[in-house]
Amino acid sequence: MEVLYTSTRNDDEKVTASKAILQGLANDGGLFMPDTIPALDIDLDQLAKMSYQETAYEVMRLFLTDFTEEELKYCINSAYDSKFDTPEIAPLVDADGAYYLELFHGSTIAFKDMALSILPYLMTTAAKKNHVKNEIVILTATSGDTGKAALAGFANVPGTRIIVFYPKNGVSPIQEKQMVTQKGDNTFVVGIHGNFDQAQTGVKQMFADKELAQVMDAAGYQFSSANSINIGRLVPQIVYYVYAYAKLYENGAIAKGEKINVVVPTGNFGNILAAYIAKNMGMPIDKLICASNENKVLFDFFTTGTYDKNREFVLTSSPSMDILISSNLERLIYRIAGNDAKKNAEFMKALNTDGKYEITEDMKAQLADFYGNYTNEQETAQVIHDLYDETGYVIDTHTAVAAGVYKKYVAATGDEKKTVIASTASPFKFTRSVMNAIDEKYDSMTDFELVDELSRIANVTVPQAIEDIRSAEVLHKTVCEVDEMPKVVKEFLKIQ
Q: What are 242's strand-pairing partners?
């Protein structure tokens, strides 16, 4: 059965999977959603025996229906190879009563690798299928992790260029060093004087700028996106929730059909939306636990039914979640509005003009699958400290937000179902925050002394991604104001 993709703001716009991946964003500014969520049509006993790559094929073939088997397997096998430092791709670690799904074993040590390793292959395959002559310009805003993962994925990929905008003072030192040392003639990294939401809004405005699109086309370019607004990012993320359940079953941790809970540290809402889609495909997932940091716009939404970004933006130790406009939430709103694009467009217009919207009682009732909560900075640090103290296992700040919220959920509900916590980044990416949480005595060390000390106390080898930037040269030094973003893009592409 062919699955087509519809804009969340206009029912009339329907495209194939390959066209949705190429476009990134719908013409009306909406996001692409599958017109149906297919059921997973393979038995769990078969799934349990499969490798990550085989599982990826079984999930992704149901969504990317205009890709041939050969094309899809080429994309999957090219993505999930030796660039991951563990053969399982996404191993599960049992610690302190939960299963941590480690999604950071790719080349940039964050969960974004899980999708951004495959997106360049999906995109270049889609370009060939659709006879695209223009060079594809990947335009991306990052709160820290997407940027490096996208840069690594697209560096030196023929027929593409990539431009990444990040908040100059809103990412960790390691995150910034990873980006600004990126090699590749087709890569460009720009710091902005502003926060992630401003970077993301600036990118969306460029996508919606028809005049800029014409100028780009005349020069032989067209925009696409590597942000989680691209359906080519979202579909590969569904895979690891299916894989995690199958592995728990294979390992005897759960019975066939036994329900589990999933906890996701959440910023832009893509990662937890992937878990929601896995549930809607028929995976036995019960509660979707949405974990926020002090930028708790999603916690407030799940509590009240009102999404309100009119609040102070807080810089935290979990910067990839320092977000007040969770773009992928629009896909959930569209779904619980009965796939009503007109209704969803009204909510998004209100968000754009008033900074908030309130969903209906009927829509609120459909959020029963979700539980939202948050941890403050002190609680996040305490979780890292206590988990290390009790088990020797070290987690990063984002994963600690999820673990802290999970404890609050169990305390509030008494629900002791087996639980998977999405571990979204390596602790080596946020060494200072992690090591200070374990013991404040580490604060006097340099960033790379902390790296070596973390390796020693956790008994974990320093990831290659960190070794690579110890002495790497800074290659990207451009910094601009938010309103200068289009000008900077034109300058990089050498167009007037």
A: none
CA angle 373, 377, 378 (to 5 degrees): 105
Q: Are 65 and 235 in contact (CB under 8 A)?
A: no
**How far is Cα 159 from Cα 132, in angstroms, rounded to an integer?**
10
Query: What's at 27, amino acid-wise?
Result: N
CA proximity to 84, closest of 67, 96, 102, 66 = 102
- C-alpha span between 43 and 275 (Å, rounded): 19
Query: What is d(CA 60, CA 67) in angstroms, rounded to the nearest whole number?
Result: 10
Q: What is d(CA 381, CA 384) in angstroms, rounded to the nearest whole number?
A: 5
Neighbour count for residue 257 (Cβ, 10 Å):
8
Strands 32-34 and 419-423: unpaired
- Which of the residues 14, 19, 112, 183 is marked catalytic? 112
pLDDT tens-place string over residues 110-146: 999 999 999 999 999 999 999 999 999 999 999 888 8
Known catalytic residue at 356: no
Q: 3-state DSSP call for residue 166? A: strand
pLDDT digits (tens, 9 = 90+) for 421-470: 999 999 999 999 999 999 999 999 999 999 999 999 999 999 999 999 98
Tell me how crowded residue 89 is: count the other CB atoms within 10 A of its CB. Answer: 25
Provide the pairing of β-strand 10-15 with 5-7: antiparallel
Token output for 199: 């970077």
Per DSSP, the three-state class of 426 is coil
The tokens of 98 are what?
């939960």
Q: Which helix (H) or strand (E) holds 15?
A: strand 10-15
pTM here is: 0.93
Mapped onto helix, strand or coil, the DSSP state of residue 191 is strand
